Amino acid sequence: MQILSHAAHTVPTMQGVQGTLDDLGTPLAEVTFTVVDLETTGGSADECGITEIGAVKVRGGAVIGELGTLVDCGLPIPPFISVLTGITQQMVVGAPRVPEVLASFLEFARGTVLVAHNAPFDVGFLKAACARHGYAWPAFPVLDTADLARRVLTREEVPDRKLGTLARFFRASTVPDHRALADARATVDVLHGLLERLGAFGVASLEEAKSFAKAPTKEQQAKRHLADAVPSGPGVYLFEDASGEILYIGKSGDLRTRVRSYFTASETRGRVREMVGIAERVRTIPCPTALEAEIRELRLIAAHKPRYNRRSKFPERAIWLKLTDEAFPRLSVVRECRSDEAAYLGPFPSAGSAEEARAALYETTPLRQCNQPLTERRIAAGKTHTCALPELGRCGSPCDGRETPEAYAGHVALARAAMTGDAGPVVRAARGRIDRLAGELRYEEAAQRRDRLAAFLRAAWRAQRFAALAACPELVAARPGPSGGWELAVIRRGRLAATGVIPPGAPRYRPYVDACVATAETVLDGPQRFAAGPEEMDCVLRWLESPGVRLVEVTGVWSCPVGGAEGMRAWIDGAYGDPKPYAGRRGDSPV
User: Fold this and answer.
1) Any bridge partners for residue 323, and if so which?
2) Dist CA 101 CA 85 (whole Å)
3) Are the CB atoms for 275 and 308 separated by under 8 Å?
4) Strand partners, 248
5) Measured CA angle at 516 (ends 510, 517), to 5 deg
6) Buried-most residue among 54, 219, 278, 288 (CB within 10 A)?
């Protein structure tokens, strides 16, 4: 019998030569973990920012370093977030910016294993921030303490897998309180408790711990046969229960591979695993292109609102800012973008961002801010009331006749132009106030004006892009296919009307284009301003702006307005800094 040693431990073997523990993976006692927790302005990594980061570096059960700081992400902190975390807007004024904090964190965590409770949330925000600010995301191994807890703790031991519950169960020395460093310290104690439990399962290496956390459930293993008849290629898939109710809708460029992943260790989302346990069949809708699959998914989710889908279920809840069409127009936050003579801005991700954009317009144009019905007859009859804004110089007081309809119409024209075309007046007015406030060291007020301007420009950018695309009666475009040939798309008034494929080596493309156009959906004018929802138009625009796209036919004109928000991308992307023209777009000329 031959015995090999490793780290002063001997392991006997019954036959042949046993390898060292290194052959079995990296021992957990030798792994350096960076336990991280973030506080943010909301739940979306694409639309929200990081307000605080806390990280604790541990190895062998001992803490070897900590990092904790507030972060000024350049976005407003909603009141309910301040109530939850205790982090207010005043607290982050003067805090390090996101790029500076990212650089420090990436250096702090270099060469370690990231650990977080509900890791997709924290890692998702970190990845999004790196992409936004030009940092390459290192290939960190990741452990999720929530996933580990689901595998090693029973419902009898803990009723849920929340960090607070687990911290109490493992008697953590730090009580989590929705502050980043405190929560990271509590997660360290939870991690150590979970690693002790893993020892009872014979898990001794990092690789074993990662695979153990992602092991498929019994329900997943039992339902693998549901993917047997799923075809390959792009399309939409629908999970249904025994009664035929649609539980979940998704899309993929390869249906078979994507559906099979729901029954493997790679699927770790708790809600999705629960859905798989209920599902009895998987129905598929093959599509000729990935674009059509993406659009079909959006339309089906909006129509059926499956209980296990979280995003895109309620497109009707989009929020718009409307410059009303009445005798004395005003700015109103509405839920519909109707096909009328009013001007619209949006859609907005929240009512708060709509209010910020409205405030930016009010600082540029002295529109009335009251909601009373205002007509010349009511004014003449004295049936209107006034407010304090005229005395503050923020309204011309058309309600009592001090401002004529003609003078008020000039303010309305300026606001309409800023919303639909030239954003320059709003930018110049906001910049003047921001520079003055910064010069007076009133940084919090300057940041507020900056955020208002950014909210206005983001919404104006989307609205102007949507309006330009919707103005085209028909647009036919082609993009190189993933396996050669070309993908075709017919867009009518912003709505995807048809897609098709030109196979590789086709001698002529015209017959395929003509067939695609001939079978395209007829798009008629309706009560809504746009024939498609905002998310669908975003998908279409992303596709049109992707590398390699060629315009085949354009009926009408597809253009961006001169001086529009498209040229202010420095503000839209970063919410701070000088507005600069954004190169590499279509510019101001018709396509």
Assistant:
1) 331, 343
2) 19
3) yes
4) 239
5) 90
6) 54
Map residue 194 onto helix, strand or coil: helix
Q: With contact defined as beta carbons under 8 Å apart, do 210 and 217 qualify?
A: no
As to burial, measured by CB atoms within 10 angstroms (0-12 exposed, 13-18 middle, 19+ buried), residue 43 is: exposed
Query: Could you tell me where the beta strands, DSSP code E, fall in 407-484?
Result: 474-480
User: Cα separation of 534 and 494, whole Å?
Assistant: 10
Q: What is the mean pLDDT of residues 439-459?
A: 87
User: What amino acid occupies position 175?
Assistant: V
Q: How far is CA 378 from CA 24, 175, 396, 454, in A?
A: 85, 62, 17, 37
What beta strand segments (E) does 159-291 contain?
235-240, 246-252, 281-286
Residue 475, SS3 per DSSP: strand
CA distance 439 to 433: 10
The answer, yes or no, to whether the previous bond of 347 is cis (omega within 30 of 0) is: yes
Q: How far is CA 227 from CA 232, 243, 255, in A?
A: 11, 19, 9
Give the pair of three-digit tokens for residue 377: 């007859």
Residue 58 burial (CB count, 10 A)? 20
d(CA 25, CA 204): 8
pTM confidence score = 0.63
How far apart (Å, rounded) are the C-alpha atoms in residues 591 and 556?
10
Residue 233 to residue 513: CA distance in whole angstroms: 21
What b-and-e string marks burial along 538-576, b requiring 16 or more CB atoms within 10 Å of the CB?
A: bbbbebbeeeeeeebebeeebbbbebbbbbbbbbbeebb
Report, as residue numbers or ranges, the catalytic residues. 178
Select from 579, 558, 329 the least CA-distant residue to 458. Answer: 579
The two tokens of residue 591 are 């396509």
State the angle between helix axes of 351-364 and 405-420 in degrees (0 to 180), rounded to the nearest 10: 130
Q: Which residues are 434's β-sheet partners? A: none
As a whole-number percent, the residues of the chain with pLDDT over 70 amount to 91
Other beta carbons within 10 angstroms of residue 404's beta carbon come to 12
Q: To the nearest 10°, the Cα dihedral for 99, 101, 105, 108?
A: 120
**pLDDT score of 300:** 95
- Per the model's pLDDT, the better-predicted residue between 6 and 240 turns out to be 240
3-state DSSP call for residue 210?
A: helix
In the DSSP assignment, the letter for residue 134 is: T
The residue that leads in pLDDT, 582 or 362, is: 362
Amino acid sitting at position 476: V
Q: How far apart are CA 256 and CA 235, in angstroms?
A: 10
Q: Take residue 114 and report the two structure tokens written for it.
A: 């990231």
Residue range 18-32: average pLDDT?
Answer: 66
Identify whether the C-beta of residue 253 lies closer than 8 Å to the C-beta of residue 234.
yes
- 3-state secondary structure string across 378-441: HHHCCCCCCCCHHHHCCCCCHHHCCCCHHHHHHHHHHHHHHHHCCCHHHHHHHHHHHHHHHHCC
Average pLDDT over residues 250-262: 90
The whole-number pLDDT of residue 570 equals 56
Task: Please choose, from the candidates 317, 405, 396, 394, the residue with its C-alpha nearest in 3D space to the C-alpha of residue 361.
Answer: 394
**Which residues contact residue 497 at a Cβ distance below 8 angstroms, ignoring those fewer than 6 apart?**
474, 490, 491, 520, 521, 522, 523
Rounded Cα gap, residues 113 and 31, in angstroms:
7
